[in-house]
Amino acid sequence: EAQLKIDGLQKIYDNKVQVLNDINLEIEKNEFLVLVGPSGCGKSTLLRTIAGLETVTQGKISIAGREVTKLAPADRNIAMVFQDYALYPHMSVRDNLAFGLKMRKRPKDEIESEIMRAAKILDIEHLLDRKPSQLSGGQRQRVAIGRAIVRRASLFLFDEPLSNLDAKLRTQTRIELADLHQKIGATSVYVTHDQVEAMTLADRIVVLDGGDIQQIGSPMELYDRP
Ligand code: ADP
Ligand code: ADP
């Protein structure tokens, strides 16, 4: 069964701007799906409806076999790495990672072992006692991804997570992300306008334009045609 299933999704803003016409999509467990398309084509809108940050005008969204169309973001078992999911500046890296689990009143030893698991995967063990202001852009990005990892979510959602990084860090973090995907095998939807990111990260690429899916296929199928 699909880990994410989208049926007949339509989104019209304020009863006038139709952004998504009729999106149908299934993502398999552990699949990394990259969403591309021209600016303003609705990539962010699609991601935000999956996250529950936007209501849908019509259609259904299911995650891990459960319909979530009307559920709040916190009840969807998703992990987001969005640009607006900033780190808490007054908290250490450790506390930033622990925050969501503390809110959920998880036992202390479980929180500690989740933090160590994420820190190890991301190679940020030596940064746990620092504040965000004492980190580089790339390190902050890794902590933001770490906050998603500790959630053990059914679905990871990324909205241009590398776009604020300079070229060098962008490449490095992209390679880390690909590696991470291998290690934790998380089902992911990743929005980008960067073709290199799409080619290197995607199992499948979805090209969105004019409110519909124009193309869908592996990077080879989409970009390597003679
Ligand atoms: P992309 O992520 O592909 O750049 P968006 O999903 O951000 O595209 O936007 C798609 C379209 O929806 C754009 O025309 C944008 O202006 C419009 N839009 C986005 N958010 C809103 C909103 N809250 N209210 C009205 N229109 C919006
Ligand atoms: P939940 O209610 O799903 O257990 P938490 O208690 O872990 O959520 O987090 C508290 C709030 O912060 C929730 O509303 C959750 O949606 C949000 N949150 C924090 N970090 C993330 C993230 N990386 N991805 C998604 N939601 C997050």
TrEMBL record:
<dbReference type="GO" id="GO:0016887">
    <property type="term" value="F:ATP hydrolysis activity"/>
</dbReference>
<dbReference type="GO" id="GO:0055052">
    <property type="term" value="C:ATP-binding cassette (ABC) transporter complex, substrate-binding subunit-containing"/>
</dbReference>
<keyword id="KW-1278">Translocase</keyword>
<keyword id="KW-1003">Cell membrane</keyword>
<keyword id="KW-0472">Membrane</keyword>
<keyword id="KW-0813">Transport</keyword>
<dbReference type="GO" id="GO:0001407">
    <property type="term" value="P:glycerophosphodiester transmembrane transport"/>
</dbReference>
<keyword id="KW-0547">Nucleotide-binding</keyword>
<keyword id="KW-0762">Sugar transport</keyword>
<dbReference type="GO" id="GO:0140359">
    <property type="term" value="F:ABC-type transporter activity"/>
</dbReference>
<keyword id="KW-0067">ATP-binding</keyword>
<protein>
    <submittedName>
        <fullName>Carbohydrate ABC transporter ATP-binding protein, CUT1 family</fullName>
    </submittedName>
</protein>
<dbReference type="GO" id="GO:0015794">
    <property type="term" value="P:glycerol-3-phosphate transmembrane transport"/>
</dbReference>
<dbReference type="GO" id="GO:0005524">
    <property type="term" value="F:ATP binding"/>
</dbReference>
<dbReference type="GO" id="GO:0008643">
    <property type="term" value="P:carbohydrate transport"/>
</dbReference>
<keyword id="KW-0997">Cell inner membrane</keyword>
<feature type="domain" description="ABC transporter">
    <location>
        <begin position="4"/>
        <end position="226"/>
    </location>
</feature>
